[in-house]
């Protein structure tokens, strides 16, 4: 990968890129710490998405490590099926990430609008996710929060993986770093056990199961209830007699949602998924080169819930001083134009 970063331990706002280098058009998304804006880089005229995050919210929610982890990983990752970083900077109040603009919105928004997804859609969706995960796993990184909200469409209907806040290097012992979204968390993560790349493939299986049945295989209102559901029995997908889906996709999903990681498709790597009969005759090279026509048609420019985006945050009493700001967020600065970053 390589460490493609420049740090701002001696941050000088007079020479570094800043929010003033961008013209904000309008908000297009919302996260836990701030909004995402559609912006234009004034000098180049290029369109980006800019993630604006309030430092007081980050500190009050004890999420500094997660935010800095995402920035670090984005600085060393670059791939056609990820949402890539172009700039990162800060001022006293906020952190900013300038990333690829994904005009198609996230997959959760798409699922709400389109209840029925056929097998061609499932295959293309899955192939895009596998392509991004294969790159991450080859670089020894587990995403750990694969879910519809973290999958976003570009203008051509290709899916990209985003949000690396809880991604981690795959290490021998990581049972104490169990976090994620319970409905998509692998059993080994829910049960505070060591986990590796098969955890991401379990989440992929949950997404596909959800696309087919409109609910997740293991459900509950709390993490404990979901864990109990997982421990109670091994769920398997069964199609109705009038289903138009093939036995191949059923087998594919059922092997992804296996509770034991050693029984799960992908335990030995992405090739296990790519060579499954579900992908028989699938042209992976055409997909990688973005020459394949996506079955997902992006027919609106602004694919997001405006009311959700404009919701206000709860007030916080956290105060960020200039000294604490630099201490907590030192090294955040990034400018991709300063590096000759090689494409994968």
Can you tell me about this structure?
The protein is an alpha+beta fold and 344 residues long. It folds into two domains: 119 residues, 2-Layer Sandwich (Phosphorylase Kinase, domain 1), CATH 3.30.200.20; 182 residues, Orthogonal Bundle (Transferase(Phosphotransferase), domain 1), CATH 1.10.510.10. It is 31% helix and 14% strand. The protein has twelve helices and ten strands. The strands form three sheets. Strands 1-2-3-5-4-10 form a six-stranded antiparallel beta sheet. Strand 4 and strand 5 form a beta hairpin. Helix 4 packs antiparallel against helix 6 and helix 6 crosses helix 8. The longest helix is centred in the middle third of the chain and has 20 residues. The chain is globular and about 60 Å long. The N terminus is likely disordered.
Task: Considering the chains and any ligands shown, give keywords for the structure.
344 residues, alpha+beta, Phosphorylase Kinase, domain 1, 2 domains, two-stranded antiparallel ribbon, 10 strands, disordered N terminus, ATP binding, Ser_Thr_kinase_AGC, non-specific serine/threonine protein kinase, serine/threonine-protein kinase
């Amino acid at each position: 990968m390589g460490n493609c970063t420049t740090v701002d331990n001696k941050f000088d706002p007079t020479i570094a890129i800043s929010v003033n280098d961008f013209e904000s058009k309008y908000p297009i998304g919302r996260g836990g710490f701030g909004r995402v804006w559609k912006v234009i880089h004034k000098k180049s005229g290029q369109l980006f998405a800019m993630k604006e995050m309030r430092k007081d919210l980050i500190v009050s929610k004890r999420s500094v490590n997660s935010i800095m982890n995402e920035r670090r990983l984005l600085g060393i990752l670059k791939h056609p099926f990820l949402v890539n970083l172009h700039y990162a900077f800060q001022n006293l109040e906020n952190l900013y990430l300038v990333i690829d603009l994904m005009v198609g919105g996230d997959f959760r928004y798409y699922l709400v609008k389109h209840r029925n997804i056929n097998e061609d859609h499932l295959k293309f969706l899955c192939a895009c996710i596998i392509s991004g995960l294969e790159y991450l796993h080859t670089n020894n990184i587990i995403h750990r929060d694969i879910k519809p909200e973290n999958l976003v469409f570009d203008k051509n209907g290709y899916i990209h993986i985003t949000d690396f806040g809880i991604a981690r290097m795959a290490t021998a012992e990581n049972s104490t770093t169990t976090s994620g979204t319970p409905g998509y968390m692998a059993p080994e993560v829910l049960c505070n056990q060591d986990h590796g790349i098969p955890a991401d493939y379990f989440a992929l299986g949950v997404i596909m199961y959800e696309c087919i049945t409109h609910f997740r295989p293991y459900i509950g209102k709390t993490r404990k209830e979901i864990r109990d559901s997982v421990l109670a029995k091994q769920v398997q997908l069964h199609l109705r007699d009038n289903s138009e889906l093939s036995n191949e996709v059923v087998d594919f999903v059922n092997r992804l949602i296996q509770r034991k990681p050693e029984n799960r498709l992908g335990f030995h790597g992405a090739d296990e998924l790519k060579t499954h009969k579900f992908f028989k005759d699938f042209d992976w090279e055409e997909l990688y080169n973005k020459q394949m026509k996506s079955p997902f048609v992006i027919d609106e420019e602004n694919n997001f819930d405006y009311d959700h985006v404009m919701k206000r945050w709860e007030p916080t009493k956290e105060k960020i001083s200039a000294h604490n700001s630099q201490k907590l967020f030192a090294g955040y600065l990034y400018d991709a134009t300063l590096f000759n970053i090689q494409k994968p």
